[in-house]
Amino acid sequence: MTPPLLVVGVRRSGTTLLRVMLDRHSRLAVPDESYFVPQLAHRHADPPDVAAFVDDLRRLPTLREWGVDPDDVAARLRPGQTLGDAIGAIYETYAELQGKERWGDKTPMYMQHLPLLERLWPDARWVHLIRDGRDTAVSFLRMPAGQMTETWAHPRTAEDFACQWRNEVRPARAIGRRVGDRYLEVRYERLVEEPETELRRICEHAGLVFEERMTAYAGEVDVSAKPHQQSLTKPPTPGLRDWRRDLPPAAAEAFEGVAGDLLAELGYDLLDPARAAGPTPRGRARIARYDALTKAYNTTAYALQRSPLWRRRHPVLARS
């Protein structure tokens, strides 16, 4: 199996923009967010039992949204294959439907499950998209409530969002140190300022040839049901969010109190250069609270996914 391309990044970092551009490549299919990878990985052994695995596929609404028939995935499965290859068969089926030979994934929720992705696909190519966390906070805090996921962790303030940004960006960069040249770091700010240059760099990393059509998505993306993605109606545009303009100074200072050291490490300017030394006492307390909430949520989700209750809550979907 060709190594997948895993696009990772904190929510509202521009990963949807990058997904749209990559998905326009003639050889690469990067579907909408999948959500099912942790569920399947937590529910099945490695290698998985094929019959039980396919039974779970019939319960996943994402496959229906992608137009993927579980029977077509089942035809690709074989006893003894790895769990990563079994899950990858879902994406392979989707890619074939799009007339493409390779697949990728872009699901920001998986920033909470990076070690799992690394274990499932040990030869994957990684693209980590990073955006100034203060701009990301502005974008996230303006999202309609109905468009958010993971209700346990909906930050209501820039300070709380800083905890998520910090605690997801650092582990992703740590993966980069482990996997070496299979990891590529891309800055959102450069992507929107020089999209062709950055896409050529990403394509080279992925073993693809850049295609002009990748930047010509404006007007061809249906965002009618996604009010938080209206920027996709425009070509890459710098400055859509600017924390200096859109984030109150007190909120920006609170963000830096949590993640100023990481902002400085990434080369972003700070309101208070002293914050480059590390989180404030209040910032450390907020990080500890976020860590505890994250651990509690993930523990509960894992237990539910492993239990018989999961199938009761996810009945087999009627054939369309």
What does this structure look like?
The chain has 320 residues and is an alpha/beta fold. The chain has helices at 15-23, 37-43, 50-57, 61-66, 70-74, 83-97, 114-120, 133-141, 158-179, 188-193, 195-206, 243-246, 249-265, 281-306, 309-313, and strands spanning 5-8, 28-29, 102-106, 125-130, 183-187. It has a single domain, classed as P-loop containing nucleotide triphosphate hydrolases (Rossmann fold, 3-Layer(aba) Sandwich). The protein contains 15 helices and five strands. It has a five-stranded parallel β-sheet, with helices on both faces. α8 packs across α9 (158-179), α9 runs parallel beside α13 and α13 crosses α14. The chain starts with a strand and ends in a 7-residue tail after the last helix. The model has no long low-confidence stretch (mean pLDDT 92).
Question: How would the blueprint of this fold be written?
Answer:
Blueprint: E1 5-8, H1 15-23, E2 28-29, H2 37-43, H3 50-57, H4 61-66, H5 70-74, H6 83-97, E3 102-106, H7 114-120, E4 125-130, H8 133-141, H9 158-179, E5 183-187, H10 188-193, H11 195-206, H12 243-246, H13 249-265, H14 281-306, H15 309-313
Parallel strand pairs: 1-3, 1-4, 2-3, 4-5
Helix pairs in contact: 8-9, 9-13, 9-14, 13-14
CATH topology: Rossmann fold
Strand order of the largest sheet: 2-3-1-4-5
- Pick out the low-confidence regions: none
CATH superfamily: P-loop containing nucleotide triphosphate hydrolases
Measure the end-to-end span: 30 Å
Largest sheet: 5 strands, parallel
Overall form = globular
